[in-house]
Amino acid sequence: TANLDALFDRFLVSFSKSGDMLISESVSDENRAFLGLDKSYKLRWITQDHERYLKQHRQRLVNKNA
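The structure assignment produced for this chain is given below.
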């Protein structure tokens, strides 16, 4: 969805190695509900190329939480 795309581009959501959605702690519970974010969201498949990019992406998400 457009919401997830925008949040991903801003490093506010990312995905674990197993495809589970990770949500930045900087997104409040109120905004999570408003945006319809659900931690049960999961990528269907991840290639090695995806994982290389997602690993870097997750690091930026973690840094945003610091």
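Interim note for the steering committee: The mean pLDDT is 90. The beta strands are 13-15, 21-23.
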